[in-house]
Amino acid sequence: MDCSFSTLTLYILPLLLVLYILKSLKLWMSDAPAGNFPPGPPRLPVIGNLHMINLRRPNETFMKLSKKYGPVFSIQMGNVKMVVLSGYETVKSALVDFADEFAERPHIPIFEDINEGFGIPFSHGENWKAMRRFTLSKLRDFGMGKRTIEDRIIEECGYFIKLLESLEGKPTDLTIKTNFAIGNIIISIILGYRFDYEDPALLKIMTIIDENMRLLGSPSVAIYNVLPVFQYLPGSHMKIKKNVKELHTFFKKKFAEHHKTLDKDDQRGYVDAFLIKQEEEKSDPNTYFHTKNLLGVLLTLFMAGTETTSSTIRWAISYMIQNPEIQKRVHDEIDKVIGSAVPRIDHRKDMPYTNAVIHETQRLANILPMNLPRETTTDIVFQGYYLPKGTYIIPLLESVLHDKTQFEKPESFFPEHFLDSDGQFVKRSAFMPFSAGRRACAGETLARMELFLFFTSLMQKFSYRSATEMTAFFVKPSTGLTIPPIAQKICCVPRI
């Protein structure tokens, strides 16, 4: 069987490659799309502009190209023509002012492999609307009258703090520990309970998610997404798919367990709520409440909801170590407003400086520099350029969060970006780490709650210093869908 498959592949792959090259040559010899399409660098046949893009950090290449070609420019990766949007005014105009016209997602091979078009981020049409509406509702209402999401976060903060206290200020790497804590919050929300930090199941889940987030930003996956003929060759995309199957197996086992003890009047978490809805609509052949959508939503909650929040918390601690005077001001505000009480969301309104520090961390750390891509839903003339329906759009969030027309010191850690002359917190319209418009992050409210409660609780209990060179905090990994701080040893010193 394996031999037959290998032999078949040996004959089919060259044929597919030839067909792909012929298609690429035809595209290369053709003119640009009708109308005034955005300018961009000259492209080569077959590979387009792949040769000039840093596939480990494509956002850096796009930032440079925007200086030459302007805030709206085109790039071609393989056969895929893309339009990159740069700068606050341009990105805001597309995602907010023209929200409906830029509301679709393109079909990206690796995400089609992962979710098959189901779930939320890369689903389409009515399926997307139904899943997003249901999920937002449950994240908003979950636990009312019982344990709220805030209570679950506070509980996990307590476990995490006990873990750090047991280290007695000795050097430690927070990476996996923080992933465990944030991952447990997601697990609590979807299943209704948490795992012990020593539980092998938790380690397996978080290891898979961490690996997938790293591989999703790898050069081989970037090439696979624009040259899908490479799906038959070994690469990171195969490892990602294998990992996803393992997660599916874990989730399906939990679904079966929850089915046996399902109680409409005592819902333990998101999975129970979804299964009850699925049961209610089981006679509807067109229902959106089926297993593939449930798996898609859970994968999104885990992959998007764990890594981004965990990385942001670690960036915040890193900035505190790099800026001891800012760390002291945060400590002073916490001591004044909260004292020894348990931090709660209600404290946020009275803590402008701490709130500003969290926002500045999200802005400067730039966790997701390119956002998730969009696609135009109709033909549109945007800022003088013609974009046909189905145009692949990359909103460059880094160019917004580091826009020098919007932030006084865009490349520095400066919490005053979010404070007025009286020291009160102010919102900035250019602050959009969760994106904006109809496809903005569905978990924004949850993430903001986690960031405030975790950061405030950690700062209340500990002071932080580096166990290595300070400059190491600003060395960013080469690959990854997100940009986490480099793993390193720090000392969490109890504040007594």
UniProtKB/TrEMBL annotation:
<keyword id="KW-0472">Membrane</keyword>
<dbReference type="GO" id="GO:0020037">
    <property type="term" value="F:heme binding"/>
</dbReference>
<keyword id="KW-0349">Heme</keyword>
<keyword id="KW-0479">Metal-binding</keyword>
<keyword id="KW-0492">Microsome</keyword>
<dbReference type="Pfam" id="PF00067">
    <property type="entry name" value="p450"/>
</dbReference>
<keyword id="KW-0256">Endoplasmic reticulum</keyword>
<keyword id="KW-1133">Transmembrane helix</keyword>
<dbReference type="GO" id="GO:0016712">
    <property type="term" value="F:oxidoreductase activity, acting on paired donors, with incorporation or reduction of molecular oxygen, reduced flavin or flavoprotein as one donor, and incorporation of one atom of oxygen"/>
</dbReference>
<keyword id="KW-0408">Iron</keyword>
<comment type="similarity">
    <text>Belongs to the cytochrome P450 family.</text>
</comment>
<dbReference type="GO" id="GO:0006082">
    <property type="term" value="P:organic acid metabolic process"/>
</dbReference>
<dbReference type="InterPro" id="IPR002401">
    <property type="entry name" value="Cyt_P450_E_grp-I"/>
</dbReference>
<dbReference type="InterPro" id="IPR050182">
    <property type="entry name" value="Cytochrome_P450_fam2"/>
</dbReference>
<feature type="binding site" description="axial binding residue">
    <location>
        <position position="441"/>
    </location>
    <ligand>
        <name>heme</name>
    </ligand>
</feature>
<keyword id="KW-0560">Oxidoreductase</keyword>
<dbReference type="InterPro" id="IPR017972">
    <property type="entry name" value="Cyt_P450_CS"/>
</dbReference>
<dbReference type="GO" id="GO:0005737">
    <property type="term" value="C:cytoplasm"/>
</dbReference>
<dbReference type="GO" id="GO:0046222">
    <property type="term" value="P:aflatoxin metabolic process"/>
</dbReference>
<dbReference type="GO" id="GO:0006805">
    <property type="term" value="P:xenobiotic metabolic process"/>
</dbReference>
<feature type="transmembrane region" description="Helical">
    <location>
        <begin position="6"/>
        <end position="22"/>
    </location>
</feature>
<keyword id="KW-0503">Monooxygenase</keyword>
<dbReference type="InterPro" id="IPR036396">
    <property type="entry name" value="Cyt_P450_sf"/>
</dbReference>
<dbReference type="InterPro" id="IPR001128">
    <property type="entry name" value="Cyt_P450"/>
</dbReference>
<protein>
    <submittedName>
        <fullName>Uncharacterized protein</fullName>
    </submittedName>
</protein>
<keyword id="KW-0812">Transmembrane</keyword>
<dbReference type="GO" id="GO:0005506">
    <property type="term" value="F:iron ion binding"/>
</dbReference>
